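Our working data are protein records whose layout never changes between entries. An example says more than a description, so a record of this kind follows.
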Amino acid sequence: MFGKKRKDSPGYEDNAALDGFGGYQPSDSSGYTPAPETPAPEPEPEKPAKQPMSRSGRRAMYGFFATLGVITVAALANNSDRSSETSAPTPRAPIVYTPSPRVVAPPVTDGWQSVAGKDGVYAYDVPPNWTPKPGTIHGWEKGTQVPGITMVASAFVGEGYCPQEKRSRIGGSGVANIKLADHAAAAKKAVDALTVSAYNPEDGPLTAKVTAEPPQTTEFTLGTGKKVPASIVLAEVITPPGACGAHRALVGVIAPQLGEASAALAVYSGQDAPGGADRELILKILKTYRGVPEADRKTITPPPSTLR
């Protein structure tokens, strides 16, 4: 139900996160299926983010090396005896990928899974049918008509639910860097950015009808145990039906008061396909967002995987 060009990138530096939650450190439509996120090599270690190469740049690079390979093979063939033409190709050895260590945090909701970001400084929980992808950055690109939004510490639900669009998903979640000090304004800005960007073509027209509710006041618990003010904003989105039949969605954001900017958790879900999150479940996910005490953070190393 979601769709268009998204910024998905492995190895993303989680700068839309908090440094101890004491001070914020600033750092991807209707039809509506985001482009595939690239699972990051777990996790997203805190190192300078590399700018992803553009698609045109990658095509040029691959074309260059492909051409170079053809020239090299032709030259070798012309300088070897004919027996080499019938030689069997050497089988390729499998590549073993070893993920980097990452920090995890225990869930606070029975039977749910936690999604941790920024070395475990913050986390939130998702239901068991969701897929946490904490090392994935996703969102929607800025267009001529949409502001765009980028989220880290991601999770998704209902991936591939629509047969007409293999990259479809019912919903997802992630943390966005919103550069506003006021938590209510930050929550509203994140809702506006997500609803407009995710449910409209990036170059328009803006056909999605968005109805946002007034901010709800709540609290956010830091890793130290201290509580700070926060705001929750919910919005309903109605769009013209697309290839996957999506027509109505709900978006929720919680933004805590953290200083000059806020790390806002956004949760979005279609309402016309089974398996998504309704209003009650979105609120429940948002209210699990928290700072994680240092004693509860654990570093793990995921097992190696073989790529063939």
User: Anything to note?
Assistant: The chain has a mean pLDDT of 78. The two ends are 32 Å apart (CA to CA). Residues 162 and 244 are 6 Å apart (CA to CA). The helical segments are 55-78, 183-198, 279-286.
